[in-house]
Structures are given as structure tokens and as C-alpha cells.
Design goal:
This protein has 165 residues and is mainly beta. It is built from two helices and twelve strands. The model has no long low-confidence stretch (mean pLDDT 91).
Length: 165
């Protein structure tokens, strides 16, 4: 399975709007954990994954605009190493299956992202890939990225081949 960008209907009136984010009949997804992040313009988070207790994710931008990047990290897949990119803004939902590293870069001054995850967060299993890995050739469209200390230290994609993920 590959990442899927989903547009769900928005019901607007003079008060504002109502939006369905996720319908079980459309995507088989079981949520164990929900989180939210606030990010400033030019922040890049990722590329993240869990080596064990792998997570599938359902993501929705509540405010702002972002580029979302998913990388297939399943060495048994014919699409191993394939990069998928999506532009996320309010009104869109992205499903990221297990076996994908995930990263997101933000374009607006204020960005709020809602995450629904199929598995709990286990810091001891958290891993990452360098956002600027030369093999993956990801154009984030962000000239001066703001990164966490942890994300700066992530290894490149080829180093995944030498480690058991």
C-alpha cells in the first residue's frame, strides 16, 4: 500500500464549516494515539519512523500549509526508497501506511498539524533519515530549514541497509 491523499467534503454556511476527517468505511485504520504539533514557517520535522511497533498515520493540517514527504522503507517492497510528496492544507487528509518514513515541512507563519496514529509512541524504537539525503533528492521548497537537534543527526537512507529496521 502507498500513501493516499484524501479530500473529504466540507459543509459550509454563515457560521463556518463542518468537516468529516475520517470514515472507517473509506480507510481501514485503528487509532491508538492522537497528537498535535504547532510549527513555524520553514520548520521541517522528519523523516521519522519507528523500527518496531510500526505506525500508520492519518494527518490533517488544521491551519497553514505544508509539504508532506513519505519514503518507502520496506526492503521487501519493489518501491523501496520511493519518495511520495503531497501538499497539505486544510480540507485534505493524508493516510501514511506502516513501513514509510514520514516528514513534513511548513510554509506558513503558523501551522497546526493533527496526527492520528495506529500505534503508541515508543521513544526507544524511534528512528529517522536525514531530511536532505542526496539519494532521495527531496526538494522541500524550504531554503533555510529549522530542524530539531535530533533531526540534524539522522543518518542517510543508505545507512538503513546496514541496520535492521
Amino acid at each position: 500500500m502507498k500513501p493516499i491523499l484524501i479530500k473529504t467534503p466540507i459543509f459550509k454556511d454563515k457560521r463556518g464549516f463542518f468537516k468529516e476527517l475520517w470514515l472507517k468505511k473509506k480507510i481501514k485504520f485503528s487509532c491508538k494515539f492522537t497528537a498535535m504539533s504547532f510549527s513555524k514557517k520553514n520548520v521541517i520535522r522528519g523523516l521519522h519512523f519507528q523500527a518496531k511497533k510500526k505506525q500508520s498515520k492519518l494527518l490533517s493540517i488544521l491551519h497553514g500549509k505544508a509539504i508532506d514527504v513519505c519514503v518507502n522503507i520496506n526492503p521487501k517492497s519493489k518501491n523501496y526508497g520511493k519518495v511520495y510528496k503531497f501538499i497539505l492544507k486544510p480540507g485534505l487528509l493524508l493516510y501514511v501506511p506502516k513501513n514509510y518514513a514520514h516528514g513534513i515541512g511548513f510554509f506558513e507563519k503558523k501551522n497546526i498539524l493533527l496526527y492520528h496514529l495506529s500505534e503508541y509512541r515508543y521513544p526507544k524504537y524511534e528512528r529517522g533519515i536525514a531530511y536532505n539525503d542526496k539519494k532521495l533528492k527531496i526538494n522541500w521548497k524550504i531554503k533555510k530549514p529549522i530542524l530539531s537537534k535530533r533531526d540534524i543527526l539522522h543518518p542517510n537512507f543508505n545507512q538503513l541497509l546496514t541496520k535492521k529496521i
